[in-house]
Amino acid sequence: MIRTLALILTFQLAGEITSRGLGLPLPGPVVGLIALVLACILRPALAEAIRPTTTGLLSHLSLFFVPAGVGIVAHWDLLRDQGLGLAVALMGSTLLAIAAGAWAFTAVARLTGSEEREALRDQGRE
Amino acid sequence: MSDPVLIWSYLAQEPLLWLTATLLAYLGGDAVSRGLGRASWANPVLIAVILLAVLLGVTGTDYATYFEGAQFVHFMLGPATVALALPLYDNLPRVRRAALPMLAGLLAGSGVAVVSALLIARGFGIEGSVLASLAPKSTTAPVAIGIAEQLGGQPTLTAALVLLTGIFGAIVVTPLLNALKIRDWRARGFAVGVAAHGIGTARAFQVNATAGAFSGIGMGLNAVLTAIIAPVALRLMGG
């Protein structure tokens, strides 16, 4: 576990240095993510070595958003001032964006014949 | 026996209390979400945030004190983002096959997220720095704050809007895409990653591994595209 954490932190650090050094629009962790994918392609054994700890981290991805989420309360005054407009804009645009993204994805998948039977949601489940 | 006030004043200064409270609130939120069969409205982040907000209010603790303890959890956002490399690597052949659908989903989702948010807000008479803070709200928090700062927005307001967007997206994605009869897990995950970043991705992983992998990719790609789209859209709308 400590080996995997050290490895992940090293990739994050390298990503942070690259992102800031080159002035990339991507944050350090996203650069680290891309670098780690490349490292796994070069050395498939690496993917298996990091799997247990990585899977554990990702199964609790929600946890890591909690402290920032509590910050909403700290900024409540800011939000309340423009409350209605911000709420409608936020909810409306999120609904539209999810619908547009999913629709465009499936439409182009159908057009280009890149549909996957095994990626379909079972009817009646969940 | 020591004075309870002394014990409290000691605890209130230490990270231990709020770090523990954050983990317990999350476990509580996660247990409720699990108990309700991962019902979309029982979002674990939302439940934990409400529990902690009430606790902070009752104890008269300010956010800065809370964050002293919670920062250790907050820090893990970075490593968790790097960890998304593994599901991406596992799904690489499928990702390659889905390159064109992903490109379409990215352009549609990212463009609609920015443009519709600005149009609706403008309709309510919102302008200036608040409008600039809203533009990148579908992007992952560190990128969104960077974009908002460049556009003359308020970083703290942006952070709050990003979090609210993520929670809302994670709650509505399942009923919305069921109603639209979108059955492709790749499309469902990708769309929520583009529109609702990491919190949407956390939701996608709860529901389906394929959706989670594609959601992580959607989140990463949207971070890049929003950095390009948001300044142009804001300028066009006279923000």
TrEMBL record, chain A:
Give UniProt keywords alphabetically: Cell membrane, Membrane, Transmembrane, Transmembrane helix
Membrane topology reported for the UniProt record: Multi-pass membrane protein
Main localisation: membrane
**Transmembrane residue ranges:** 29-46, 58-78, 84-108
Q: Do you know which InterPro entries this protein is assigned to?
A: LrgA/CidA
Give me the Gene Ontology terms describing cellular component.
Answer: plasma membrane
Cell compartment(s), UniProt: Cell membrane
| Protein name as catalogued | CidA/LrgA family protein
* Organism of this sequence: Paracoccus hibiscisoli
TrEMBL record, chain B:
Q: What is this protein called?
A: LrgB family protein
Q: Does the keyword Transcription regulation apply?
A: no
Gene Ontology CC entries for this record: membrane
Which keywords appear in this protein's UniProt record, sorted alphabetically? Membrane, Transmembrane, Transmembrane helix
Spans through the membrane = 6-29, 41-60, 72-89, 101-121, 159-180, 211-234
- Please name the InterPro entries in this protein's record: CidB/LrgB
Q: What is its main location?
A: membrane
Q: Does the keyword Calcium apply?
A: no
Tell me the compartments it is located in. Membrane
The species this protein belongs to is Paracoccus hibiscisoli
Its record classes its membrane topology as:
Multi-pass membrane protein
